[in-house]
Design a protein that fits this description.
Blueprint lengths: L11 H9 L11 E2 L11 H9 L14 H14 L13 E4 L2 H12 L7 E6 L4 H8 L3 E6 L15 H6 E7 L11 H14 L2 E5 L16 H8 L7 E6 H4 L8 E5 L1 H14 L5 H11 L3 H21 L13 E5 L4 H12 L1 E2 L1 E2 L16 E5 L4 H17 L1
Parallel strand pairs: 1-10, 3-4, 3-5, 5-6, 6-7
Antiparallel strand pairs: 2-8, 7-8, 9-12, 11-12
Helix pairs in contact: 2-11, 3-11, 4-5, 4-10, 7-8, 12-14
Length: 398
């Protein structure tokens, strides 16, 4: 058995189940889950239709690289969305379809990381736990950069030592962030690219929440935006991860893409050929329909705006919580231990949230998620409003 498995930490939801397992919630209240970040808005009808119309493709073995039409649709979307000059994203060299970003982030790390006891995989803290598990199973060491309120919930990259950058093999970014919703500024991305050049590491930008934002006139920039402004047409050392799960409410389709540095994409394709995780052709055809349409994405953002406005109107007077730059999470500061808050809230109000300390690691005696909880506003508007009113009532009862 791979002994690295013994170093994996329990997933946050395992810890949450253990925390709540001995608690009996108020039986008079129906459960409302603000814990799992699973989109609940309806999936686009035209995507479902495209999938249904191509079910005969189940008789076809898919290729790992995917069909040309999907790679072209992705490249065109990436250029439109991030102001990349037309033709820079070569569908054959810079784009690779994947079965959702979760498996892609893990497999990518196995491709890029060298089995070196001195090598570091650097990530924000709190973070999406795949970054950590992928690092451990790739034979590298996770290194955590705290995301504190004092720095806008982004890592203080200026405080990272040259020694850490020199040992870094992959820098994971998540923008807008999970769980904080913070956006990494464009100028910061440019500085990180310069650091990657200086110290020879890869930037892996997890941008699966990039299409959940509030100002239609100011879409969040991404790593591709920074490459475009720098004239970096080869996207050297830069790779982005995108998904239809949040953008298009299609978490069960398991469809996304990786794009960027052609040399890295070539190596990743080789790994995935052996990994055996090609996207079914019918899924690819349905994905083309999704990437080519923006109307349903704007409608999706409208639904989230409505929920954020309603929930924050209820919670802001009684809780330290702000609208994030993006994503569908609230990262709220609570007036007690975060695990205790989550347990008591579940018991008294039958609302489930995630303790922030479960999404973070303690470094030098500090857990940057401690004293906060993550709330996913994925449920329908009425449920989110009811949950917010229960939380306000819970706080008032104390």
């Amino acid at each position: 058995m791979n002994d690295a498995l013994t170093h994996l930490q329990p997933y946050p939801f395992e810890k949450l189940r253990a925390l709540l397992g001995a608690v009996t919630p108020n039986p008079e209240l129906r459960p409302i889950a603000l814990s799992i970040g699973e989109p609940k808005h309806p999936s686009p009808a035209f995507v479902k239709q495209a999938l249904a119309e191509n079910l005969d493709q189940m008789a076809v073995y898919p290729t790992t690289q995917g069909i040309a039409a999907l790679r072209e649709a992705i490249a065109q979307w990436g250029e439109r969305r991030f102001n990349v000059p037309a033709g820079w994203l070569d569908p054959a060299r810079h784009v690779l379809p994947v079965n959702g970003t979760r498996e892609a982030l893990f497999a990518f790390t196995q491709t890029v990381a060298q089995r070196n006891v001195d090598g570091l995989i650097v990530s924000p803290n709190p973070f999406y736990q795949i970054y950590e598990g992928a690092a451990i199973l790739a034979g590298a060491t996770p290194h955590y950069l705290p995301c504190l309120d004092s720095n806008g919930f982004n890592p203080d990259f200026e405080a990272v030592s040259a020694q850490v950058w020199q040992r870094c093999q992959i820098l994971f970014l998540c923008s807008p962030g999970n769980p904080t919703g913070a956006l990494v500024p464009l100028e910061t991305l440019k500085k990180l690219i310069a650091l990657a050049d200086e110290h020879d590491f890869v930037i892996a930008a997890d941008e699966c929440y990039s299409e959940l934002y509030f100002d239609e006139q100011a879409p969040p920039p991404g790593l591709l935006s920074a490459c475009a402004e720098l004239g970096r047409s080869d996207f050297k050392r830069c790779v982005v991860f995108h998904s239809l799960s949040k953008r298009s409410n299609l978490p069960g389709l398991r469809s996304g893409f990786v794009a960027g540095d052609a040399d890295i994409i070539k190596a990743f394709l080789l790994y995935r050929t052996y990994h055996g995780c090609a996207m079914p052709v019918q899924t690819q055809l349905a994905s083309i329909a999704a990437w080519r349409d923006e109307a349903h994405v704007r409608e999706n953002r409208d639904l989230y705006r409505e929920k954020f406005d309603a929930v924050l109107a209820i919670l802001s007077p009684v809780l330290d919580v702000k609208k994030p730059d993006g994503s569908f999470y609230l990262w709220a500061k609570v007036p007690m231990d975060d695990a205790q808050f989550s347990r008591q809230l579940f018991e008294q109000a039958h609302v489930t949230v995630v303790p922030g300390s479960y999404l973070s690691r303690e470094v030098d005696g500090v857990n940057p998620g401690a004293g906060r909880v993550r709330m996913a506003l994925v449920a329908p508007l009425a449920e989110c409003v009811e949950a917010a009113e229960r939380i306000r009532g819970f706080l008032a009862s104390r």
